[in-house]
Amino acid sequence: MSEQPGKVDAKLGANVFKLDQEPHIVIDTETCRTVCTRRVCLQVCPADLYETNDQGDMTVNWEGCLECGTCLICCDEKALRWEYPRGGFGVQYRMS
Amino acid sequence: MEKVECIVVGGGLAGLVAAYGLAREGVEVMVLERGNYAGAKNVTGGRLYMRPLRRIYPELWDDMPFERPVARELITMLGDGAATTVELASERLSGPSPQSYTIQRAKLDQWLADKATAAGAMVVTDMKADELLRDGERVIGVRAGGDEVGAEVTIIAEGVLGLLSGGAGLREQPRAADHAVGFKEIIELPPGVIEDRWRLNEGEGAAQLFMGDVTRGMTGGGFLYTNRASIALGVVVSMEQMRTRSDELESWELLDAFKEAAQIKPLVRGGELAEYSAHAVFEGGIDKLPRSYGAGYLLAGEAAGFALNALVTVRGMDLAIASGWAAARAALAARAAGDSSAAALAVYERFLRETFVMRAMEAGRGVPRAIENRRLFSEYPGAVARLLEGFFAVDDESSATLVRTSLRGARREFLKIDTLKDLWSLRKV
Ligand SMILES: Cc1cc2nc3c(=O)[nH]c(=O)nc-3n(C[C@H](O)[C@H](O)[C@H](O)COP(=O)(O)OP(=O)(O)OC[C@H]3O[C@@H](n4cnc5c(N)ncnc54)[C@H](O)[C@@H]3O)c2cc1C
């Protein structure tokens, strides 16, 4: 499963992203640690952006976000502050 | 506060068609689009059903940028290590007035933005609307990029997530049970290879839909659309079923496994990945639609829930376009009456009913429940294959006649009360 790191990264590498300074997804890691038991974000994100770090906290590599909103909709605990990137920033689809 | 007659939030199909319809009648209209260009944020499967649209602004479509008219339809059931395909090539699919075209959103949306601009609309890109401005119940404009802009009518065409309208309480926040997620790869292939692989005449296209193993029994399916020099290969899967799995399967793995399946591999052979995209789709059906109007605002396109997921095809673009048309009509009526109250804007519902939007949503009423049925996506694709394998089998014990073997297989696989119930629930699809 996530034992194949980079598989989705390679796909994201084909995309054009215009990166902002500030993340557009902020995780309430406290909620993830103390309340959430399932961590569905790890499973549902089509870009495989969610990870658990060494301290056991949730992290998100928001730079590769495809802006689909699946994590926001699926999060059990409403632990995400998720908004669209600032105007002009984020993914720029050319052929989809 | 600066003021315009109408603001449109979102330069997707619904928003741009609404803006075009208003601008051509001389209304001062401003579209706010968060993308760097119209279409930069938009993902579709790839096929626009054109026939219902020709009556909407007939002058608009002549030079629409499309990839290929769909001349060949294929439905493939994958199960039990086998693929069974039903295929239709018909003059009535393509012909002089094709039923559907494959398209790419970056091209289609920019073309529509140009049409709206030429008609007099102001399309502002790189501009995210951050908040709806309210005066009590009434929507009076938006805040965007640090400025406030007022409008008599605000058309909210922000797409499926409805972050602005949901945030303002004009509709519910999206729920996993009513949505699917779709993700796809654009894989480049030379036009001639595409035509050979799908047995197409020059310039014609194919649409191939997949059900069964693609989604491991979850509601959804795979799709493949041929563009001019690429194919769109993707998976759509129920968010609720994905998030409640007991194993550790990750969504993106579905597409990789699909691409690697023995029956799919030859279709993508030699292709180069050019883009990977993902987007949510609404599949809650007519019973989950929000109220689409109120004082000073209208909801159009998928922000209003106008999309249909019928078994393996998703339909939303034609509904977005038609609802954009209806929204423009409603805003024009409100302007003529000098009244943009909720009561005045209620004509929107009448205009929606005049188009095919509500008929299509109505016809899809039973679909959400019918497609929740996992037998459709797990058992049946394999059963069909086994039945045909029985039909084609030649072995030492096949003394029985072909017909008898097949009948016996069919009885075993399909003569169950559940199957009859499923057939009944599918009559709507
Ligand atoms: C994988 C997949 C396959 C599909 N296949 C098909 C298909 O084959 N045929 C079909 O007909 N339909 C299909 N659909 C459905 C169809 O793509 C959608 O229903 C349709 O695109 C909705 O159009 P829209 O104009 O309502 O919204 P969108 O196309 O989503 O447009 C919304 C626009 O608003 C902008 N926006 C959002 N918020 C803001 C903001 N705050 N400020 C400024 N701008 C904002 C966005 O950038 C975007 O341009 C598919 C969908 C998916 C995900």
Number of strands of chain B: 19
Strand count of chain A? 6
CATH class of the largest domain in chain B: Alpha Beta
- The geometry of chain B reads as globular
Structural class computed from helices and strand pairing of chain B: alpha+beta
How is the main sheet of chain A built? 2 strands, antiparallel
Distance from N terminus to C terminus of chain B (CA atoms, Å) equals 49 Å
User: Structural class of chain A, please?
Assistant: alpha+beta
Main beta-sheet strand count, sense and barrel state of chain B: 9 strands, mixed
CATH class of chain A: Alpha Beta
* Oligomer state of the chains in this structure: heterodimer
The average pLDDT of chain B is 92
| Number of separate domains of chain B | 3
Characterization of the model:
With 96 residues, chain A is of the alpha+beta class. Chain A has one domain (19-88): Alpha-Beta Plaits. Helices cover 22% and strands 17% of the residues of chain A. Chain A has 4 helices and 6 strands. Chain A has helices at residues 7-12, 29-34, 41-44, 70-74, and strands spanning 17-18, 25-27, 50-52, 58-60, 80-82, 90-91. Chain A has a two-stranded antiparallel sheet with strand order 1-6. Chain A starts with 6 loop residues before the first helix and ends in a 5-residue tail after the last strand. The mean pLDDT of chain A is 94. With 429 residues, chain B is an alpha+beta fold. Chain B folds into 3 domains: 2-65 and 104-172 and 290-355, FAD/NAD(P)-binding domain (3-Layer(bba) Sandwich), CATH 3.50.50.60; 177-282, D-Amino Acid Oxidase, Chain A, domain 2, CATH 3.30.9.90; 370-425, no CATH class. Helices cover 32% and strands 28% of the residues of chain B. Chain B contains 15 helices and 19 strands. Chain B has helices spanning 13-23, 105-119, 163-167, 191-197, 239-243, 251-260, 265-268, 317-337, 342-345, 347-354, 357-363, 367-371, 379-392, 402-414, 417-426; strands spanning 2-9, 29-32, 47-49, 68-79, 82-89, 100-102, 122-124, 129-135, 138-144, 147-156, 179-188, 205-212, 220-226, 230-238, 272-282, 293-294, 297-299, 308-310, 313-315. In chain B, strands 3, 4, 5, 6, 11, 12, 13, 14 and 15 form a 9-stranded mixed sheet that branches. In chain B, strands 1, 2, 7, 8, 9, 10, 16 and 17 form an 8-stranded mixed sheet that branches. In chain B, a hairpin with a 3-residue loop joins strand 13 and strand 14 (230-238). In chain B, helix 1 runs parallel beside helix 2, helix 1 (13-23) runs parallel beside helix 8 (317-337) and helix 13 (379-392) runs antiparallel to helix 14 (402-414). The longest helix of chain B has 21 residues, at 317-337. The radius of gyration of chain B is 23 Å and the shape is globular. Chain B starts with a strand and ends with a helix. The model of chain B has no long low-confidence stretch (mean pLDDT 92). Chains A and B meet through helix 1, helix 3, helix 4 and strand 6 of A and strand 11, helix 5, helix 6 and strand 15 of B. The complex binds flavin-adenine dinucleotide (FAD).
